[in-house]
């Protein structure tokens, strides 16, 4: 199989590239000239350099491929550049879809997110759920929802696209959770906020496997939730504590966290600084709960992921 991976140097993209190569597939990676490609060191990848909205680069990268895996995205919560996020997540997806149709790409797998469903208020939902949250919790939530609408319209217009929707993605080189885990292992994480927050968990390699399975077993226009299950943050730290003997961090008082966030948020927005806590992150910690059921991916794709517990324990090894 000849594959193109957008965002090939990223966390998800790099793991997907390595799995494709291990299968014997040929891989082209779309990356920017300024991209750090250290994750792909020693990988036999053909690089095409260009921005995700660069239609000439996309045309070069897509010509002759069997499948496009669109994983490129601007992923961040808190103080973000919302204009840039929209350019990457929405306009970038628009460009990818338009070029894929123009060069007659046979299939595309789009890496979406369970966040498009919005706040499910703790109810467990599947792919049939219709979003009820009218507003958006973040720029990321909004831009990924808008990008999904573009994907769905492209399917109606005749392009073959299947959408995978991962929950929280974990792995040993995770750029978001790794600093937290590192601080915990060094005994520096004494206090944490939002211990009751529920997080869906999937290992990045299991996500990559699901995307590959979707090429052969998925159907165009279908959504596939990719989550091995969920745990609260407190349950996650208890697993880490059992593995290391390091005490789980104490729960910070919710009222205090909200006050600190309300002070730091405007400072961060005025200065362009990313504070350790802000109003958006507090919303995700205490006010928003998305829970999902990935039965469809297991049944239709034959996806068999490792458990959340095994995923978390694997982060502690090596």
Automatic annotation (TrEMBL):
Transmembrane segments: none annotated. Residues 3-225 form the NAD-dependent epimerase/dehydratase domain. It comes from the Bacteria. GO terms for molecular function: aldehyde dehydrogenase (NAD+) activity; isomerase activity. The keyword Isomerase applies. One of its GO terms (cellular component) is cytoplasm. Gene3D superfamilies: NAD(P)-binding Rossmann-like Domain. Keywords: Isomerase. The keyword Zinc-finger does not apply. InterPro entries: Epimerase_deHydtase, NAD(P)-bd_dom_sf, NAD(P)-dependent_oxidoreduct. This is 3-beta hydroxysteroid dehydrogenase/isomerase family protein. It comes from Leptolyngbya boryana NIES-2135.
């Amino acid at each position: 199989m000849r594959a193109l991976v957008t965002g090939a140097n990223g966390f998800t993209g790099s793991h997907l590239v390595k799995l494709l190569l291990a299968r014997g597939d040929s891989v082209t990676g779309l990356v920017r000239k300024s991209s750090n490609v250290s994750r792909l060191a020693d990988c036999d990848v053909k690089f095409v350099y260009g921005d995700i909205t660069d239609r000439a680069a996309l045309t070069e990268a897509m010509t002759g491929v069997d499948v496009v895996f669109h994983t490129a995205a601007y992923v961040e919560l808190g103080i973000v550049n919302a204009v840039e996020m929209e350019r990457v997540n929405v306009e970038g997806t628009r460009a990818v879809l338009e070029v894929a149709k123009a060069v007659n790409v046979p299939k595309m797998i789009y890496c979406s997110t369970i966040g498009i469903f919005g706040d499910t208020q703790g109810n467990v939902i599947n792919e049939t759920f219709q979003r009820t949250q009218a507003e958006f919790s973040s720029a990321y939530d909004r831009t990924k929802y808008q990008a999904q609408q573009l994907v769905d319209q492209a399917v109606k217009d005749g392009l073959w696209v299947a959408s995978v929707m991962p929950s929280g993605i974990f792995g040993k080189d995770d750029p978001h959770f790794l600093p937290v885990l590192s601080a915990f292992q060094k005994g520096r994480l004494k206090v944490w906020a939002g211990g009751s927050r529920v997080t869906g968990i999937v290992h990045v390699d299991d996500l990559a496997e699901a995307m590959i399975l979707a090429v052969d077993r998925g159907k165009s226009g279908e959504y596939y939730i990719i989550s091995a299950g969920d745990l609260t943050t407190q349950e996650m730290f208890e697993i880490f504590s059992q593995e290391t003997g390091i005490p789980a961090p104490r729960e910070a008082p919710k009222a205090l966290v909200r006050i600190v966030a309300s002070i730091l948020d405007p400072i961060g927005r005025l200065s362009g600084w990313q504070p350790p806590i802000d109003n958006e992150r507090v919303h995700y910690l205490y006010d928003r709960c998305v829970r999902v059921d990935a039965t469809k991916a297991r049944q239709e794709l034959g996806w068999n992921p490792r458990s959340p517990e095994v995923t978390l324990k694997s982060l502690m090894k090596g």
